[in-house]
Amino acid sequence: MPGVAKTATEIARVAARVFGAHLGDGRPSGRKILRAPLIGERLAAYYPKTMAALDPLFTAPDETRRKVKLERLKRRGKGPPKKGEGKRAGSK
Fold it and tell me: Around Cβ 17, how many Cβ atoms within 10 Å?
C-alpha cells in the first residue's frame, strides 16, 4: 500500500502532521511563545480608562499645570526654541 509509512521517522512525521505537533531537533524555536494565547485585550481591560477618554470636558490637572508653566516661561523668554532654532542650529 502506498499510504503506509515505513520507518519510525515517517510515522513521527505523519503523526506530527495529524496532531499538529512540531518535529524539532532540540533547539529552541519559539513555537511555545507563538502558540500561547494573546493577552493584549485582557491586559488593556485591567487598567481603567482615563478621565479624558470618559469625559471630553475633563482637563487633567497635570496638563493644566504644565501649560501654565510653559506659558510663564515663554513670557520670560525661557521657553523651548522654535523648530530649527536649537542650540546646534548654527553649526550646520
Answer: 10
